[in-house]
Amino acid sequence: MLEVNEIHTYYGNSHVLRGVSLQVKPGSVTSLLGRNGAGKTTTVLSVMGYLKPRSGSIVYGGKAIAGLPSHRISRMGLGFVPQERGVFPSLSVEENLTVAARPGRDSRWTLPRIYELFPRLKERRRNRGFQLSGGEQQLVSIARALMLNPTVIVLDEPSEGLAPLIVDEIVEILHKMKSEGIAILLIEQNLSAALDLADMHYVLSKGEVCFSGTSETLRNSERVLSDHLSV
Ligand SMILES: Nc1ncnc2c1ncn2[C@@H]1O[C@H](COP(=O)(O)OP(=O)(O)OP(=O)(O)O)[C@@H](O)[C@H]1O
Ligand SMILES: [Mg+2]
């Protein structure tokens, strides 16, 4: 459903992605792993239209999307939860959730359903963005992506810098999203969470994919774990 084929992405003259390919299958969870600076964020920014690869292709639902404006890509059904979360500090939780939503006839993710999945956000719906903890901001960012009824959701390190309890809450929510049939592309430093959630893993090193395989294969790949994931 989402296919990245041999993309090369640059920042100015700096050649960062060197032929990255990966696939996200319908309803599955795919993880993207690798050390700091390996190129994970650059890969998802390329997918979401914030960076344009110089070569290679990105195909989603049969359409070439590389270089399309990001708002068009998200309307096609690709949701994005960026590494910096992007919660509007002066808006309430509820305003953050509804500001970008475009409810349609078949919109599955209404506010009441979101509040069912995120009871903590219901409690805090009148609080403003700046009053939320880091974990609550992450929940807002995930819930806001869901409000656009995505078929694939891309999350860039959702558990980064958060306490274990809220990380468990986020992992639980990702499991529920998966059971609703939403495909997930997950960047994650927390290897055990990634092994638990994902069906397929890609490991990046210096802008190249150095491993791809199932959780079982990754668990048994001691060299990949020690060289590229600091395990
Ligand atoms: N705006 C930028 N301009 C120039 N170089 C950049 C820019 N953003 C990232 N880079 C470089 O591109 C490489 C890949 O960065 P990227 O942010 O994709 O890594 P990452 O795998 O997401 O790392 P992290 O785990 O720290 O988030 C790094 O060498 C980084 O220094
Ligand atoms: Mg990153």
Break the fold down into its secondary structure elements and pairings.
Blueprint: E1 2-11, E2 14-24, E3 29-33, H1 40-47, E4 55-60, E5 63-64, H2 70-75, E6 78-81, H3 93-98, H4 111-117, H5 119-123, H6 134-146, E7 152-156, H7 164-179, E8 183-187, H8 191-197, E9 200-205, E10 208-214, H9 215-219, H10 222-228
Parallel strand pairs: 3-8, 3-9, 6-7, 7-8
Antiparallel strand pairs: 1-2, 1-4, 4-5, 9-10
Bound molecules: adenosine-5'-triphosphate (ATP) and magnesium ion.
Family: Belongs to the ABC transporter superfamily.
Domain ABC transporter: 2-231
Pfam families: ABC_tran
Describe this structure in words.
- The chain has 231 residues and is α/β, with parallel strands linked by helices.
- The protein has one domain: P-loop containing nucleotide triphosphate hydrolases (Rossmann fold, 3-Layer(aba) Sandwich), CATH 3.40.50.
- It contains ten helices and ten strands.
- The strands form two sheets. It has a six-stranded mixed beta sheet, with helices on both faces. A four-stranded antiparallel beta sheet has the order 2-1-4-5, covered by helices on one side.
- The relative contact order is 0.19.
- The mean pLDDT is 93.
- Magnesium ion binds next to helix 1.
Net shape: globular
For this structure, the CATH topology is Rossmann fold
- The counted number of beta strands is 10
Q: List low-confidence stretches.
A: none
Mean pLDDT: 93
Per CATH, the class reads Alpha Beta
The main sheet comes to:
6 strands, mixed
**Radius of gyration computed on alpha carbons:** 17 Å
Strand content: 25-35%
Small-molecule binders: adenosine-5'-triphosphate, magnesium ion
Under CATH, the homologous superfamily reads P-loop containing nucleotide triphosphate hydrolases
The run of helices and strands is EEEHEEHEHHHHEHEHEEHH
Class from secondary-structure proportions: alpha/beta
